[in-house]
Amino acid sequence: MSKVRKWLIPLIILIITLVVARFILDNPPQTQRGGPSNASQLTVEVSSLSPQQFTVVVDSFGTVQPKTQNALVAQVSGQIIYVSPQFRNGGFFNKGDILVKLDPRDYYGGR
Domain boundaries in the chain? Predict the structure, then answer.
């Protein structure tokens, strides 16, 4: 009895599957196409685009760090009498630019 059930149940499932597949293939679904719907139609406005320049402002916050950082150390002491405008946070300067001038009286005997 057990061997009969082992083969009979899959055989019944296979036969049912074949009958359903045959029914589906012989009776494909019918499409019902109609005319345009009676729903209201949308009106669309179209405009041509042209390239334009504009400024984008981005508000943000954070910490800014320099790309390079140097420490300036004086080899002599003296009173500072001139500081270059470029000698500030974020300032740029080139090799040979004078950033700070010291009072020459300290080195030339008060002349």
Answer: 75-111
| Coil, strand or helix at 83 | strand
Containing 4, the helix (H) or strand (E) segment is helix 2-26
State whether residue 46 is helix, strand or coil.
coil
Q: CA 82 to CA 72: how far, in whole Å?
A: 16
**Can you give the pLDDT at residue 74?**
73
Question: Which one, of 56, 91, 50, 84, lies nearest residue 70 by Cα?
Answer: 91
Neighbours of 107 (CB within 10 A): 11
pLDDT at 1: 63
pTM of the model: 0.34
Given a contact cutoff of 8 angstroms between Cβ atoms, the answer to whether 107 and 78 are in contact is yes
As a whole number of angstroms, the distance between CA 3 and CA 22 comes to: 29
CA angle 24, 27, 33 (to 5 degrees): 120
